[in-house]
Amino acid sequence: MSEITIRRAKEADLPAIVAMLADDALGRGREDTSEPIARAYRDAFAAVDADPNQFLAVMTEDSRVIGTLQITYLAGLSLQGALRGQIEAVRIADDRRGSRLGRRLLEWAVEECHRRGCRLVQLTTNKSRLDAHRFDERLGFKASHIGYKLELLISSGR
């Protein structure tokens, strides 16, 4: 029987993580899976890995990366100064979907937030991901807020 573990991501995991991020209609248009892995991904990984309020996780089966998500811990004044856990970029490898691994990964993330002292866990997902919305609601998440994003143009230096 294969052993499934969840751990902090390593730079060597980046190709597998980026491949999962690119493995849908949204991701195909915004991610770059060419090898070698783009410097922007390596730079972003280094920044995330160095930040104590970030946790990029991978789920592995034996030595293969089969899932990923990122937790960001947010301090704030609302809710009487409550710490929040923000979960994003939840992905399971295509050939492993439907095997309850997504549930296991999200439950692990919620427990990590609880262990860290978070009073609230927030989860973001694109409005077009209707299957993900149903999945998240089955896990107890509620669509209680509306979020907005503003894409900023950046210089070619990054």
UniProtKB/TrEMBL annotation:
InterPro entries reported in the protein's UniProt record: Acyl_CoA_acyltransferase, Bact_Acetyltransf, GNAT_dom
Keywords carried by this UniProt record: Acyltransferase, Transferase
Single GO molecular function: acyltransferase activity, transferring groups other than amino-acyl groups
Pfam families (UniProt xref): Acetyltransf_1
Sequence ranges assigned to domain N-acetyltransferase in this UniProt record: 4-158
PANTHER family attached to this UniProt entry: AMINOALKYLPHOSPHONATE N-ACETYLTRANSFERASE-RELATED, AMINOALKYLPHOSPHONATE N-ACETYLTRANSFERASE-RELATED-RELATED
The protein's name: GNAT family N-acetyltransferase
Protein species of origin: Mesorhizobium waimense
